[in-house]
Amino acid sequence: MATKIRLQRHGRKNYAFYPIVIADSRAPRDGRFIERIGSYNPNTNPATVTLNFERALYWVTVGAQPTDTVRSILSHEGVMLMHHLLGGVKKGAFDQAEAERRFNEWKAKKDAKTANAKATMAQQREATAKQRLEAETAKNKAKAELVAKKKAEAAAAAAAENAEATEAPAEETEAAAE
Fold first, then answer.
1. Shared-domain flag, residues 165 and 106
2. Most buried one in 102, 122, 126, 156, CB count within 10 A?
3. Given a cut of 80, is residue 44 above it in pLDDT?
4. Residue 175: what pLDDT?
5. CA-to-CA distance for 23 and 20, rounded, in angstroms?
6. Are residues 72 and 102 in the same domain?
7. Judgement on whether residues 119 and 170 belong to the same structural domain of the protein
8. Domain coverage including residue 167
9. pLDDT the model gives residue 5
10. Judgement on whether residues 69 and 101 belong to the same structural domain of the protein
């Protein structure tokens, strides 16, 4: 039986998420599977991957073939590196402690890089939000000035009408008095 590590499609139209499963290669994509080892959600930024590392490593070592997308996910999570390091241990190039040390170094570098990228993205989001707020505040201020100007013009026009209205009866009373 040829086993594959592949993605199953779930979710709705334009918003899919993918369980990572071990399945017989002859089974349908969304059909029967042997074991679910994780999930992949590309809808978040950055994409969210949950993976049972030990089970994924076990299935890779017993010969399950990952699809191209799953291979990249496993590489990103370190499963393929650990499989490679265990091959070096098996050949006698180095011992298990050295393999774990190398893996932990790689994992620490990767985690630091990921944290840095997330912090940079958060700063960019904050900067764009601040720029939008400043632009909106400037627009609101300009609009308030325009409204105040129109109100002042309307008040001046009303005052001029009142002045004319009060002058006209005064002229009529003066003309009547003469």
1. yes
2. 102
3. yes
4. 61
5. 10
6. no
7. yes
8. 94-178
9. 95
10. no
